[in-house]
Amino acid sequence: MKQKPINLTFFLIIIFALSLTVHGAELAKPAPDFSLKGANGKTYKLSDYKGKYVVLEWVNYGCPFVGKHYNSGHMQKMQKYYTEKGVIWLTICSSAPGKQGYYEGDALKKMNQEKGLNSTAYLIDDTGKVGRMYEAKTTPHMFVINPDGNLIYAGAIDNTRSTNIKDIDGANNYVSSVLDDCMAGKMVEPKATTPYGCSVKY
Known about the structure:
This protein has helices at residues 8-19, 64-71, 74-83, 105-115, 129-133, 174-183, and strands at 35-38, 43-45, 54-58, 88-93, 121-124, 138-139, 142-145, 151-155, 191-192, 198-199. By secondary structure, the protein is α/β, with parallel strands linked by helices. It has one domain (27-199): Glutaredoxin (3-Layer(aba) Sandwich). A hairpin with a 4-residue loop joins strand 1 (35-38) and strand 2 (43-45).
């Protein structure tokens, strides 16, 4: 019994279609570009920061895991320390309207002031488009991008899955380690860890 010949044209169309499939953020590859409006009304585009280190921090102020780092002042200290070194730190909220962590207008400005936010900008991703692009699963969920625009870290802020402020000091802070090593010119292998926290409220 003769087999039907493979339709080469059909095969090439399938291959071409697959090549156009949009993938999420992948380690050691260019971080997906995006544009989001900040709490200050300005628009921020990731590609505008090519040549700089960029940290993406997913946030939800109502999450106790986020509260651990903000109520202690730990997250704000990190933001201040690294932005003073030229790092762009983007705090992103992907909570949908009506969900925990979603604020707008004056309520958002007041919340950022109360928390003492020191990041470059607080970005509003209320459609969840950017969060899904990066597959952000928890708050916090951290990503580090190098000056070449490549993603070099994705995962937890540290190795201690806890809401206890006392656990911060003894934790291994992955984000600080990656930034410090890279900025010191040390070879750091791209890596990922399992993020912990509250689920992103898409």
